[in-house]
Amino acid sequence: MKAAVSVMDISKAWGTYAALTNVSFDVAPGEVVALLGPSGAGKSTILRCVNHLDTITAGRIYVHGSLIGYSERSDGLYELSDVEISRQRQSIGMVFQSFNLFRHLTALQNVMSGPVHVLNMPKDKARQIALNLLEKVGLGQKGDSYPSQLSGGQQQRVAIARALAMSPKVMLLDEPTSALDPELAQEVVVTIKALAEEGQTMLIATHDMGIARDVADRVIFMESGRIVEDGPSNEFFASPRSDRAKQFLSRISAH
Amino acid sequence: MTMVTSHIATASELPIIHRRRWGSWLLGAAALLLVATIVAAGIQARILDLPVFLDYLFSPLILTGALNAIVLGTLALLIATAIGFVAALMRVSGNLILVALSSTYVYLFRGTPMLIQLIFWFNAVPIMFKTITIWLPFMDAPLVSMPTTAVVTPFIAALAGLSLAEGAYMSEIIRGGILAVDQGQRAAARALGMTQKKVLQQVVIPQAGRIIIPAAGNQYIMLLKSTSLASAVGYLELLRIATDIYSSNFRVVELLAVAAIWYLVMTAFATALQTTLEKLFPQR
Ligand SMILES: Nc1ncnc2c1ncn2[C@@H]1O[C@H](COP(=O)(O)OP(=O)(O)OP(=O)(O)O)[C@@H](O)[C@H]1O
Ligand SMILES: [Mg+2]
């Protein structure tokens, strides 16, 4: 079967600093992959490259078969136009650590914003979709609240609903629970778990071992811009192969 | 349990006595006294002849001047906002040439007195371009061809001068508003699949707009008063008309008071407009 996401030998440099070096992996449709690793490992950078918010310096990324950010010609890869890249992003949902809801819109309007302003869907239809999604993330009563009136956990669930409203083929989640205290984080984990059970393809950068252990099928462990270990989640936690992963896990379980 | 309840009850029955701020009261009284002394001195000296003042307050000439000032100030603000918006977008575009052009514009127009700019436009443009000619394609004769002095009337010169000068200030205000919308929201909008233009329309402008209203209101008030500079190029605005009248009848104080009253009315109007807009678009 064709991969949902195919990251092929990508590298990313910020000036002379190599944030990613020769990173390759595939995500199968319906698979949930957790990106683990210490701070600065390059987890966020990978996610931002997958939807071309950051540009790679070498390699290629395919999402459901289409080359992200570039068009291939005989003499090289040419960067796509704003409109073309925007079209590719429509099927890639993204959720951020700091929620990033539109502050001037209600929860409902936030969720409607993609369908209405990107897909030009009629407002009535978009509203119906948005209401269903808010219901799904447990916020059916909060549609008229502005972000400033919602708790962090509620804001993050609205952000997830906003991404889902585009019916993305792939969801990228960058530390979706890191800004939340354990109780609120749990609400978000429940939502993400439900998505996983529905077969949503997800790539999740996280420091939350609960997500990596209970939600993810597979773990990719990184350090300093390289993949150190890549394998099924249960194997990673039961018997990590690399010393670096063992050290990482022992430090976490010491908490 | 009952102990606790009764304890709270007694506590709430005791009146709360606020601390008196004697110092600020004394200061307030002193300030009032000072104001009263000045006003009394003014009245005693009969600096203002009330009937004359009232006579001129609603005279047609003065009213025309006030109207001219409002029209000039308001149009200038609208044009300045458009100029400022474009200059602000250029400034944040990241394109070196556009950034340089925009910052040079802001530096020049913020950095020189408005009066110099007004006189410059009125005098220099007709010298630089002797005639203004507009050609349409496939026509033997130009559509419009006239001497520049006929186009650059005092009103046009004043409007151009005020708009360009004010545009420099507005561009900085608008740029501030744009920058105040965080990168995270832009990234989220891009990730949804919005084009740069959509991000600007749907996410940045609505929030930046709300942020710039108070500062823009302030600029509007400044601009309404700056219309008095237009007298330098012969535009018949409020202050110019008042000056013309008192230079023939020597009722200086009365006429200046009349002009001041109308400037205050304009300011009240601008303030009310700003307050209404702020209520209409509450900060979230
Ligand atoms: N805009 C940038 N300019 C320069 N360097 C950057 C930029 N963004 C990220 N980096 C660097 O790239 C490296 C990888 O960053 P990244 O944010 O991907 O790490 P991460 O694994 O997500 O870390 P964390 O767990 O703290 O979120 C870091 O060393 C970071 O300093
Ligand atoms: Mg990160």
Automatic annotation (TrEMBL), chain B:
Superkingdom in the source lineage: Bacteria
Regions crossing the membrane: 22-44, 56-79, 115-138, 144-165, 255-277
Main location: membrane
Membrane topology category: Multi-pass membrane protein
ABC transmembrane type-1 domain ranges (all copies): 66-274
Keywords: Amino-acid transport, Cell membrane, Membrane, Transmembrane, Transmembrane helix, Transport
Name recorded for this polypeptide: Amino acid ABC transporter permease
UniProt source species: Microvirga puerhi
